[in-house]
Design a protein that fits this description.
Layout lengths: L1 E6 L4 E6 L6 E5 L2 H24 L6 H20 L11 H26 L2 H4 L1 H31 L5 E6 L3 H12 L5 E7 L9 H4 L2 E3 L1 H9 L5 E4 L6 H11 L5 E4 L13 E4 L2 E4 L9 H35 L5 E7 L5 E7 L23 H8 L7 H7 L3 E3 L6 H7 L15 E3 L1 H4 L9 H16 L3 H14 L8
Parallel strand pairs: 4-5, 4-7, 5-6, 7-8, 13-14
Antiparallel strand pairs: 1-2, 2-3, 9-10, 11-12
Helix pairs in contact: 1-2, 1-5, 2-3, 2-10, 3-5, 10-12
């Protein structure tokens, strides 16, 4: 029986096969991931217990509600933000930052729950605040200590593994470079092996070339190699099968790096269809707990904004109605989640209401824009009715800005990957907008950059990124010169 493993960013996958039977992928649970979950629970409960004892506060049902609420919410938030993923290649500061973010959301929701269900949150505020603060310090500190310990022992050669790469391909060279630049991973790179003559290989690959594929197999058979990374093109299926057959006579762990990973995968994950495993190439980041967290964020913030802005919105609606002919609210069909058409609301800022197969973008000094409309567009106040779209579940507060249907049909033919921005709900504001790509896109290059930022947002979504975009939007609302 041959074993093929793929070491992904978040989890490991193993493809087992035997002669005469099909292969299947099984998910390997990380032992460290389980350890971190248990350690976090211990830290939360220990800090809670010690703080209540230090302040001589009785532990009653109300206090138990708080600690269980904190523990459950922290675990859900950690899953949604992928806190328990592999952090081998990341900086310790990034891990601590992610922990602090989960802790912040947890504290906010725990206090909200405590306000309604636990008197301890209001009767013993100093105890609760001390517990929250100490839990953050401890959650961050034990991670720092653990990672420092692991880095130290790996750099000394302990807990290290010997690795080789089969295939002097672009992704094979990139893998070799990453291994050598991250000695904290505890992986010692021994070289690249390829059957092609050195003169047929790129100069960069020749530096690492140590022999043929048969030389690599011989090394593995003599137990000189722990990891074998196969980076051959997927078109070389027969050759890969042959190599796997040879590797089955070794004790090395064999990892396949498919060459389609050179493409820009979006939130790829494994999906089970009966006994068959499928790898998604383009997918949404909002599934399971992350989807619920995103929706909670949208509902809470949109309710808050609508409550605060109710009176100003009524004043704006009246002003629009009084200063120009037409309705106060302009509705336009745009593409929403999964490319389905939705109605998007805005305060009318133009004298026309284009919503057909031809929609002209607003330009500088556009005669269609009313005097009041120019102010509303420059300050983004015309977008305020879209908080109603958010409550309806058609939009999100943060996400790729929705374009008119006519513009979608135009640009999907011109820009590769354009429709992938519809894998998430469109937003009132977005990553592209706070990076300067707001307003008119009068060249294909500008729209390409906007799409690039939209896809980057989908790749790297987190609650913290949403908050960052909201803050930058609020700061830049009155200084943005691109909106007209």
């Amino acid at each position: 029986m041959a074993k093929l493993e793929y070491d992904g960013l978040n989890t490991d996958f193993t493809l087992s096969s035997s002669s005469g039977s099909g292969g299947f992928v099984v998910r390997n649970q990380s032992g460290f991931s389980t350890l971190y979950r248990l350690a976090d629970l211990v830290v939360v409960f220990a800090s809670w217990y010690l703080c209540y004892n230090a302040f001589s506060v009785a532990i009653d049902d109300s206090a138990l509600v708080l600690v269980f609420c904190f523990s459950i919410v922290f675990q859900l938030c950690a899953e949604a933000t992928d806190l328990y993923r592999s952090w081998r290649g990341a900086k310790t500061s990034e891990m601590v930052k992610a922990t602090a973010f989960c802790w912040s959301i947890t504290c906010l929701l725990t206090l909200t729950c405590g306000y309604f269900f636990a008197e301890a949150s209001t009767e013993t505020p100093l105890t609760v605040i001390t517990w929250f603060a100490s839990s953050l310090i401890t959650l961050s500190a034990w991670r720092y200590v653990m990672r420092s310990f692991l880095f130290k022992i790996r750099k000394t050669g302990l807990n290290s593994r010997q690795a080789i790469v089969i295939g002097a391909t672009k992704i094979g060279q990139e893998l070799a470079s990453q291994i050598m630049s991250h000695d904290e991973l505890g992986i010692r790179f021994l070289g690249i092996f390829d059957d092609r003559q050195p003169e047929r290989l790129p100069d960069s690959a020749q530096l690492f070339l140590k022999g043929s594929i048969q030389d690599a197999i011989d090394m593995a058979k003599t137990n000189k190699v722990d990891y074998i990374y196969i980076a051959l093109p997927m078109g070389a299926e027969n050759r890969i099968r042959e190599i796997l057959n040879y590797c089955s006579d070794t004790t090395a762990s064999v990892y396949l790096i498919p060459n389609f990973f050179v493409f820009n995968l979006m939130n790829s994950r494994w999906q089970s269809i009966g006994t068959v495993q499928a790898l998604s190439i383009f997918d949404t980041p909002f599934q399971g707990a992350s989807e619920a967290l995103k929706r909670i964020e949208d509902i809470l913030l949109s309710l808050l904004f609508l409550t605060v802005l109710a009176v100003p919105m009524l004043i704006i609606a009246a002003a629009v109605k009084l200063t120009s002919k037409g309705p106060a609210i302009f509705k336009q069909k745009r593409y929403g989640l999964d490319g389905k058409q939705i109605w998007v609301y805005k305060f009318r800022s133009m004298s026309t209401q284009d919503n057909g197969p031809q929609v002209k973008q607003a330009t500088k000094n556009d005669p269609r824009i009313t005097k009041l409309g120019a102010f509303l567009r420059r300050t983004s106040l015309d977008e305020l009715p879209q908080f109603i779209n958010v409550l309806q579940g058609r939009m999100s507060i943060v996400g790729p800005r929705p374009h008119a249907v006519a513009h979608n049909e135009q640009y999907r033919k011109l820009i590769s990957g354009y429709m992938l921005r519809h894998k998430v709900r469109p937003g009132i504001t977005g990553w592209a907008q706070v990076n300067g790509f707001r307003g008119e896109t009068n060249t294909i290059e500008k729209m390409e950059k906007r799409v690039q930022f939209d896809l980057d947002y989908i790749h790297n979504w987190s609650i913290w990124l949403d908050i960052k975009i909201i803050i930058k939007t609020a700061i830049g609302t009155f200084v943005d010169k691109n909106a007209y």
